[in-house]
Specification:
Elements lengths: L16 H13 L14 H13 L3 E5 L2 H11 L7 E5 L5 H8 L3 E5 L9 H7 L5 E5 L8 H11 L2 E5 L7 E2 L2 E2 L6 E5 L12 E5 L2 H10 L21 H4 L9 H12 L1 H19 L6 E2 L6 E2 L4 E5 L5 H13 L5 E2 L24 H8 L1 E5 L6 H21 L1
Parallel strand pairs: 2-3, 2-4, 4-5, 5-8
Antiparallel strand pairs: 1-9, 6-7, 6-11, 8-9, 10-12, 12-14, 13-14
Length: about 400
Amino acid sequence: MTEVFTGSFTQQEPIAQAGIDAAMRVLQHGRLHRYNTLPDELSETALLEQEFAAQIGARYCLAVASGGYAMATALRAVGVKPGDRVLTNVFTLAPVPGAVAAVGAVPVFVGVTDQLVIDLDDLADKLPQARVLLLSHMRGHLCDMERLMALCDAAGVTVIEDCAHTMGAFWADVPSGRFGAVGCFSCQTYKHVNSGEGGLLVTDDPQIAARAVIYSGSYMLYERHLAAPPPDAFAQIKYETPNISGRMDNLRAAILRPQIAQLPTQVARWNARYETLEQGLRGTPGLRVIERPDAERKVGSSIQFLLPDWPTGAVQDLVARCAARGVELKWFGAPEPAGFTSRYDSWRYAPSEAMPATDAVLAGLVDMRVPLTFSTEDCALIARIIRSEVGAVYQQA
């Protein structure tokens, strides 16, 4: 009998009762705006910033409207101006080059390896072209961060980390987001904490933090932040920095605070599901799993595999056959963007050159979400379905 998976790849777990209770308190008092507080009251947003900064070991943290807003704000705060060139991964999602375009800068794309991380040799060749790297830890894959930082530091290139897929991950015991000058995180529904939309920005630099706070729309209320620099850091910046409002509100912050506290537990649950999938797929003829480096402590909220040298029609057939059995796969080699998935040559606002080595990786790259609503038994079933369909298509190709 043919097995079929009947679960949803987009269904998240419900918000925990602690988050619901906190949200209800905010709704009942009605002070949703982060600066609408009673005398001596600490806003939910300020508390979230303080707690996340402490958890990740950062001096400063700012809560904003989205991960994309966090990246654009970080670019502005480190001094990127219209017309500047910014290095960034060619393998990423559209909000990353979108953040570069949002500040009027020009992306310079860096290739991807078959381990799905930024190609450090290509980066070394392109470092002279820009003074900022917006590094996307795409789909949770961390490159050799010591080598990357050594290259960038030697070249005088400032690193901003896009940690939308690596909140809770580490490289060699250092949290993702703590290598570069700024770390940017997403709280969008499909990320590791869920407030629908939202973002967090962390840094140890008081000038970057002060600019980011003013950019986010603090007016002159920056002293109400618990994880911001002291008032003297704003002395001149407050006159020079425009308000580009993108604050987080107290309702979303209230929902997020219990989730941040539970993140280590959630990471362990994701990794149990990931490892079940990986074990089920490993050794499948025609399919290659992504080997993770020893220094990486991942968050397995999605899984990727490669179909090396498969013809386009065979990959499309596999995706369709798995979908018919309830398994939703995404293919990064598709010529046209679909849903959340798009390829660098479809971002026509961002000029790009042909990248044959990257194209060869993307041509066989398949991606799948791993929601926590799946059990490990679900993941074992999904792996059997993929393995079966890969076998069927591979034999015919």
